[in-house]
Every structure is written in structure tokens, then in C-alpha cells.
Amino acid sequence: MNRAHNSSGPTVSIILPFLNGGAEFVPALRSILEQSFTDWELLLCNDGSTDGSLEVARAVRDPRVIVWSDGKSKGLAARLNECIDRSSGSLIARMDADDISYPHRLRHQVAFLEARPEVDVAGCPMLIFEENGAPIGKRLVPLEHEEIVANPASGFGLAHPTWLARAGWYRKHHYDPAAIRFEDIELLYRSYPTSRFANVPQLLYGYRELRGGFRKRLKTRLGRLRYLRERRDITRPGLFWEAAFTESLKVVSDAALAATSTRYQALRLREHQLDPLESTEWHEVFNRLNAAGRAAA
Predict the structure, then answer these.
(1) Distance between CA atoms of residues 170 and 160, nearest Å
(2) Separation between Cα atoms, residue 144 and residue 53, nearest integer Å
(3) Domains of the chain
């Protein structure tokens, strides 16, 4: 349901471009609608879906939800910029169309940024789960800026879909549409020398890991290396070669896991184990959202 922006604006604008969200799109949307923090708007930008996702988005009956579509496919970075430019919140949150935000995600992250005015972007740890919802483990992240940016050759400890950023920071640092499949990494490389990052300690986001996806990860790694090679004059000396070595090892590992269909097993070894309370909470959240989605359908 479309609506005009409130002149004063909400506290949070959630930006969620989508392309063929599939069955996972409904519980993702429900996870926003059920947030305990309610002063938000949800910006749903269709990027050329052909599976009925646009109809799902338009069927949401909540005045805080804004949906638009131009029938074209422009890519994630371009659509994120479009959402940023249309947003009216003082804070901007990311969300992917097949993931799950825990019910108190926004409340915790908003409170954190209110208490830490020096921080531009706040993320959080992620629960990693299989395509069918089975939990794999939790991906922990460093909490403070110095640790997050300590090793740019390996990336940054700030998971893209978990970001809650100040709107002014996002408008200063738009995404580069040419950075296909590594738009977040490119933005962080460009912005981190003049920004402050942090992560809240709470587990607030469920990230869906696809069993396959080798080609997607390969394109991401190659794109990142191209970016570093082309910008060797403005990055730290030796960063490109460090990253090239790191990414080469990751490509070999990804290929082996894809060939043997053991990606989930490897992730269980890599990620941190959930404690019983975390596991129980995840099952309650996931099952409730999916049940609500089936009822709505």
C-alpha cells in the first residue's frame, strides 16, 4: 500500500529492494511488521520481479509500507540508492528479502545509536540458517570500530543486511551501481577512513544461506579484487595482493564445498554453536513467522 511521507518522518526507514523473493518473502515482511519498535517505514522497491513478489508486497495492509515498481531490473545497488533517496527516517536499516529480523532488532539497534552518537553504522551478529529454516550456528562479529576495520584485506566485520545507519551517513556515501555483488564492501572501503562502525552484541538477525551459490560468491570475490586493483593508488600499499591471496584460498574452498555438497557441514564447523535458549528462540520466531505467512496466503 503506497502512502505519502509524513512531514516529520519516522525514526527508521527500512530499505528492502526485492527481485523474485519467492516463498521466503512473506516471513521476511512479517518479521518487520512484528517489530516491537513501531516508528518505522518500510520501503519496498521492486527490481523486475516475475514471480508474484510485487503482488505480495502490494497486498500488505499497513500505512507504514511504501511499494513502487517501474518494471525494470536495475540491480541491488541502484535500488538501494533509490530507497535511500526516498527515505524520510533519521535512521536507515537494511533488510534482505529472504531473511528474518528478530522482533526486537530495531529496538536494540535504535537504542544503541541513540546512546552512541559517534557511531555512523551499527550491525549485529547473525544466526545462519539453511534454506528450510534449520539453524546452522551464529556468526559473531567484532563490537568496536578498530576491530571491525582491522583487516580490510579479509573484509569488514559488519554484515550488510544487519546495518542500521544514520541517514546523513548513507546520503553522503551512496552505493556504486557498478560494484555488482560487492556493493557493501566497496562502500565500506570508500567510507571507513572517515566513519565509525560498531556492532551490538545481541543476536538480532537470521541470515538464510543457500546450499549452492558458488557462482554468486565467485563473482563477488572477483569484483572485489577488480575494485582493489583499480584503486591501488588510494588504498593501503599491499592491500590488493593480501586480498588476492585470501580470496584465492576462499575460491578453492568454495569450489570444493560445492563439488562435494558439503557447504552446510562446513558452515556448522565454522560458525559458533547456538546455546539452548538461542536455538529455542530461533525456532519460535521462524515457526511463528512462517505460520503467519501461510495464514495470510
Answers:
(1) 13
(2) 37
(3) 12-211+261-296 (3.90.550.10)
Whole-angstrom Cα distance, residue 194 to residue 196? 7
228 burial (CB, 10 Å; 0-12 / 13-18 / 19+) is buried
Tens-place pLDDT, residues 112-169: 999 999 999 999 999 999 999 999 999 999 999 999 999 887 789 999 999 999 999 9
Residue 91 DSSP SS3: strand
CB atoms within 10 A of CB 36: 11
pLDDT at residue 186, as a whole number: 87
Cα 15 from chain centroid?
10
The pTM score is 0.85
Among 188, 220, 181, CA closest to 77: 181
Phi, psi of 270 (to 5 degrees): -80, -40
Q: Which residue matches cell numbers 595482493?
A: 241
pLDDT for the residue numbered 218:
66
In a 3-state reduction of DSSP, which class is residue 199?
Answer: strand
Q: Distance (Å, rounded) from C-alpha 274 to C-alpha 210?
A: 19
- Helical segments of the chain, H only: 25-33, 53-58, 76-86, 105-115, 145-148, 167-172, 183-191, 214-230, 239-260, 263-270, 276-296
Interstrand relation of 91-94 and 12-18 (parallel, antiparallel or unpaired): parallel
